[in-house]
Amino acid sequence: MSETINRVIIINNLFPIKCSTELLPAEPLYKRLPVCGQGGTRLNDLLMIFPGLKYQSASEQKKRLEKIESLLLPYKEDIVLAELNLKIGTLWLSFQSKPGLSAEIAAWLHHHLPESRLVAQHSDTET
């Protein structure tokens, strides 16, 4: 079984997910992440990559993590889960379905962290 380093950031306390910086088995996202929010509404997802993150020192990775956490705070009412995979340098977000929110969050992160790149997004509310 492969292993990866994950950091789960709790943004919205509606979902009881524990923070962790330990080595965790790499399971498929559909087994680990919520699919539906309150009232059974489907969540939207977005994946961003941070090139070179895995090559940074532990202190630099910690600084980046803290910056990402602070950048996501304005969206704390919408984000259900954020997972930063330090080993491969990806950020996975699951959040409430709202028109334009995927693009807004991706643009906000890219504006403050220009090295970040949007890889993929899934949205039931956007065209």
How would you briefly describe this protein structure?
The protein has helices at 29-32, 58-72, 101-112, and strands spanning 3-9, 23-25, 44-49, 79-85, 90-95, 117-122. With 127 residues, it is an alpha+beta fold. The longest helix has 15 residues, at 58-72.
Overview of this structure, please?
This protein is an alpha+beta fold and 127 residues long. The chain has one domain (3-122): 2-Layer Sandwich (Alpha-Beta Plaits). The chain has three helices and six strands. The protein has helices at residues 29-32, 58-72, 101-112, and strands at 3-9, 23-25, 44-49, 79-85, 90-95, 117-122. Strands 2-1-4-5-3-6 form a six-stranded antiparallel β-sheet, with helices on one face. A hairpin with a 4-residue loop joins β4 and β5. The longest helix is centred in the middle third of the chain and has 15 residues, at 58-72.
